[in-house]
Design goal:
- The structure is a single chain.
- By secondary structure, the chain is of the alpha+beta class.
- The chain has one helix spanning 2-18; strands spanning 21-27, 31-33, 36-38, 41-48, 51-56, 59-69, 78-82, 85-90, 96-100.
- The protein is 16% helix and 50% strand.
Length: 108
């Protein structure tokens, strides 16, 4: 009985620890995130604590972010840009925005 309870708690703890929030974001032009140039296309954006992970197929980059709340719910995904550098992503259907720190140099 005790083993079953401990296994149940361990399973729940593992599920919570590995749960990252994930959203699909489409870049219509090339963009730069954390010094890495990304081609146009659909990407999966996950964030956990202060790190965003951007994935497309086998391509994966990680970038430091500051997760902030917006006063109003974002109707759709919105990018705030500085040239081709992504400064923030407002996630549609949430009050969340991911603010990217400007680091690195763009690569091809």
């Amino acid at each position: 009985m005790v083993k079953q309870i401990l296994f149940g708690f361990a399973s729940v703890a593992l599920a919570v620890a590995s749960a990252a929030t994930s959203y699909n974001v489409t870049f219509y032009d090339s963009v730069v995130i954390n010094g890495t140039k990304l081609k146009p296309g659909e990407y999966k954006v996950e964030y956990n604590d202060n790190t965003a992970t951007i994935k497309q197929g086998k391509s994966v980059i990680q970038a430091p972010v500051k997760v902030e709340n917006t006063s109003q719910k974002n109707a759709s995904n919105v990018l705030r840009m500085d040239g081709s550098d992504v400064q923030e992503i407002r996630l549609g259907g949430t009050h969340t925005k991911l603010v990217f720190e400007k680091t690195g140099v763009a690569t091809n």
